[in-house]
Amino acid sequence: MEAEQAREVIPHGDPFALFTAWYDEAREAEPNDSNAMALATATPEGLPSVRMVLLKGYGPDGFVFYTNGHSRKGQEIAANPNVALLFHWKSLRRQIRIEGRLQPVSDAEADAYFHSRARDSQLGAVASDQSAPLDSRETFLARYEAARDRFAHGEVDRPPHWGGFRVVPSAIEFWHDRPYRLHERRRFVRKVTTDGHAPAWSSTLLYP
Q1: Angle between helices 119-127 and 137-150 (to 10 degrees)
Q2: For residue 184, what are the domain limits?
Q3: Active-site residue among 117, 181, 185, 190?
Q4: Residues 128-180: pLDDT tens digits?
């Protein structure tokens, strides 16, 4: 057992390649929303909030999600673009933490994703004044019906305040459950480059 415990299961290398390998396994193993991730934001004063969102794309340039810019998270993002993400795949006993800054996706990307959603989801986005006080559910459903009537004969327009963000990571940390709580953690940190080449990553194991 000592030899097995000593074997590292989180290698140094490309953190995005490792993310892809783990994410692909999660998509097979997790029964619901393998792309769910906790998004932590904060006000300029450092007051935090966290909620679940869905990963809608990723690559070496970052991790993409979409939201209503008028929501609490949208307002905090506008004031403070530093965020953190957490993936927790209980069935695999793994988690990934990501820290970075947000960049808005292009209007073309936002339009393409918005119109890939189910039409009812598009209408819901139009109807929802996300995070604002709501006097009754009937009011929200009435707004949804009004949106459905408004766009009954054409494409649903993406609201200008609804769009996407890309978390450009500065650090990615992988955690893997090991027996007897002798877990394994490896933290990757992006190296700053000024020569135009792709960013390099350093990594180190951390005590669990």
Answers
A1: 120
A2: 2-115+160-206
A3: 181
A4: 999 889 999 999 999 999 999 999 999 999 999 999 999 999 999 999 999 88
Coil, strand or helix at 141: helix
184-204 burial: b if 16+ Cβ within 10 Å, else e: bbbbbbbeeeeeeeeeebebe
Are residues 181 and 88 part of one domain?
Answer: yes
Q: Are residues 58 and 68 in the same domain?
A: yes
Q: What is the pLDDT of residues 121-140, one digit of tens each?
A: 999 999 999 988 999 999 99
Residue 162 bridge partners (DSSP):
68
Residue 122 and residue 7: Cα distance in Å, rounded?
A: 48
Distance CA 102, CA 94 (A): 25
Tens digit of pLDDT for each residue in 93-104?
999 999 999 999
**Contact (Cβ atoms closer than 8 angstroms) between residue 94 and residue 190:** no
CATH of the domain at 45: 2.30.110.10
Statement: residue 50 has pLDDT above 70 = yes
* 38 and 133 both lie in a single domain: no
Closest CA to 102 of 69, 131, 133, 125: 69
Mark whether 181 is an active-site residue.
yes
Give the rounded distance of the alpha carbon of 103 from its chain centre. Answer: 13
For residue 135, CA distances in Å to 73, 83, 132, 139 come to 21, 31, 10, 7
